[in-house]
Amino acid sequence: MRTDTPPTIYRKDYTPPSYWVRTVEMGFDLEPSATRVATRMTLERNQTSNDKVLTLYGEELQLVQIRLNGKVLGTKAYQLKDGVLRIPTTAEQITLDIETLLQPDRNTSLMGLYVSNGNFFTQCEAEGFRKITYFPDRPDVMATYKVMLRGDKKKYPVLLSNGNLIEQGDLGDGRHYALWEDPFKKPSYLFALVAGQLVCQEETIKLKSGREALLQVWVEEGNLDKTQHAMDSLINSIRWDEERFGLELDLDRFMIVAVGDFNMGAMENKGLNIFNTKFVLANPRIATDVDYGNIEAVVGHEYFHNWTGNRVTCRDWFQLSLKEGLTVFRDQEFSADMIGTDSGRAVKRIDDVRVLRQAQFPEDAGPMAHPVRPDSFVEISNFYTVTIYEKGAEVVRMYQTLLGRDGFRKGMDLYFERHDGQAVECDDFRAAMSDANGRDLTQFERWYSQAGTPRVVATTVYDAVHKTYAITLKQSCPATPGQKNKLPFHIPVAVGLLDSNGNDMQLHLRGFPQVQSTVVLELMEEQQTFVFEDVSEEPVPSLLRDFSAPVNLEYDYSDADLAFLMAHDSDAFNRWEAGQRLAARRLLALTATAQQSGAVLTTDPALSESLRLTLNDAALDPAFREIALNLPSETVIAEQMDVINPQAIHQARRFLRQSLAQALRADFIEAYKANQTPGDYSPDAASAGKRALKNLALSYISELDDAAAHVMAQTQCDGADNMTDRVAALGALANSTAPGKEAALAQFYQDFEAEPLVVDKWFSLQAMARTTDVAAVRKLMQHPAFSLKNPNRARSLIFSFCNGNPSQFHASDGSGYAFWAEQVIALDAINPQVAARLARSLDRWRKYAPSLQSKMQAALKRVAQTAKLSKDTKEVVGKSLAAE
């Protein structure tokens, strides 16, 4: 077992660099096994620093030569240890030349410069640039870049980097060159390089100012017919940012490049966004409605980073949510606006909250809990988390809730006016929002500095004599690692009141002159009471409308209250929420019963009838009905239990789905028939909503696992003209005992074996099927199409099983945990970032039954005792084992 402990980096220890880099010139001679990189940078002493040493960082580099102001430095003139290069100097101005040698074809970490399918790509966020050259690789060091690329013209006909193409030509020896210049200062993490055999779709558009810009989407040969949606999404993103925030594309050219080997979803490198193929390639044959939506969101996200992340960036990595949380909020708003209807916006909001609850709330309650602005880390890659992104987006959304849409825009305008071209902190964004609107947001800072999900308990009192209705809100927040006691948050709680007919009351909040149907209560103390006047009858409260804050809200609703809200609430989110609360109550009760030996599970006619009303309400959009009839996930139910029993949860949820399928079979069949989408496939929101409801009906009917259900699924699978319907039908078959399911799976693979993204779906469907155990996953790993080195393929099979098939992963014999340990260790030797993400699958081990805990702990210790474990994985496993 390794005894060395990686150092912990603390936000409080931040100090500015001793030198600022002003310009960077780089030359690359591209060879897969020996790429030579020549870097010249000009530096200027930071007058606020007393440090007499220039510090640069490098990893897995062969240092060829260093020249300082034209003089070659011998090894005694600098110190190089553990990837840190220190050069003593007191010069005010420096020209530093560094030559390094790389082996991109052996770089399986996919960080820095690497080779994928014979082409060169880079990924430099967060600290990948140090795998290219020695550099002060930190986000507050911003410089302009000029980059010369040279390579074999036949092997690498396309040479791309950030910014604008200045010059290109032949070198006369079978090689050619391209010179790129980025006119905007940027940190090194935004550097990008792509070289290889690629083709592009391009369009020229006119920006709002009248200037023209060239847009390009680059892909490998054979994928050009899958780029139109990405191009349309890019154009829509540009138009939306111009209209919503007055932000225009600032370069003459904007490029997207797709690569199949990529650790993340995409990367916002200035002017040269590099994407996982999963978020670029789409046509009706290979992509589902969800894929189309994800591509639109991710293309938007990376484009929006051009301003919120690139033009204004982070002072240090602790401020990561400054760009990521803000940009997730922006892409959520963009996607909602692209749908264009109130119902569509509501469905998008519900989807976002479901992700938050299923992934971020558990993170906030586990050993890896951290504030939106962390105070420390060992490996920054471990903090690209749902807390930074999704909770960070909720924090930004609360500004808009508190200040209004116009007030939020004023804050954004001031933010860019003050900080364009700078590396700043989360507090600078908060100050811009505060100053632009004349609001004191001092207490709001706690959303950045305190971890955990606040708990808000609501109680109400109606006074029939005085016609008042009092709502008392009490907040608290559980202890999290390193933070035992929490101060009160500034929590916006949007509230409506419904009369006995289900209509919104006009609200008169004591002390406020406005009369409206929804009021935002600002909870800032541990406990506050808000009084509404002129309330003619006792209402049913609609609390936390539109999920106005990322909190756990508790209120003693009766089942009748929830059914009433489910039927009448004008707030679509709370209408959905009421149904989820009803279903969760039933699932928790069934889970408790399932844990009792010999107990019999029973049906709930009241819940069935409530869901029947929603299913058959033609006034509701199909997309909303689909999402309303989806039961809370096993993960969400697990989070509401003190001790998690995965088998009992699975048994309860499956029983409830089967009961609903039996009770509503005729209704589901009718919904299936009524929501067909004949004609050519279109991913528009209305059509996608119909397919979603139709396929939800199919999934419920398939729970009955009888011959009629098998025929329905098989018929759809055979006749589907789009990937959405085919995958839905194949998933229904994979979870059934249908005699034709193996043949259907084999046929699917045969039809799409040349489409990597579809093969990923094939692996994932099988990994999450309820009959798939560890032995079946091991067998799938032997398939010729499986490779542990490709992150998408590893995620499609191993991650899908460990995170998406809880009843099998948590098998009582511990076989799932032993498998998990093997794969974490194997992945860590190839790609530490991917391994560390898989390691998170067991970080909540202390919440499970003792018989499972002991086996989880043993698996964690097995990983912890592995020699040469990366600091990425070591941090996650160490925190998981240390948590109390």
TrEMBL record:
Q: Name one GO molecular function term.
A: metallopeptidase activity
Q: Which Pfam families match?
A: DUF3458 (PF11940), DUF3458_C (PF17432), Peptidase_M1 (PF01433), Peptidase_M1_N (PF17900)
Which keywords has UniProt assigned to this entry? Aminopeptidase, Hydrolase, Metal-binding, Metalloprotease, Protease, Zinc
GO biological process: one example: proteolysis
The Aminopeptidase N-like N-terminal domain, residue ranges: 36-190
SUPFAM superfamilies under this entry? Leukotriene A4 hydrolase N-terminal domain (SSF63737), Metalloproteases ('zincins'), catalytic domain (SSF55486)
Outline what the protein does: Aminopeptidase N is involved in the degradation of intracellular peptides generated by protein breakdown during normal growth as well as in response to nutrient starvation.
**NCBIfam families associated with the record:** pepN_proteo
Q: What is this protein called?
A: Aminopeptidase N
Per the record, the gene is: pepN
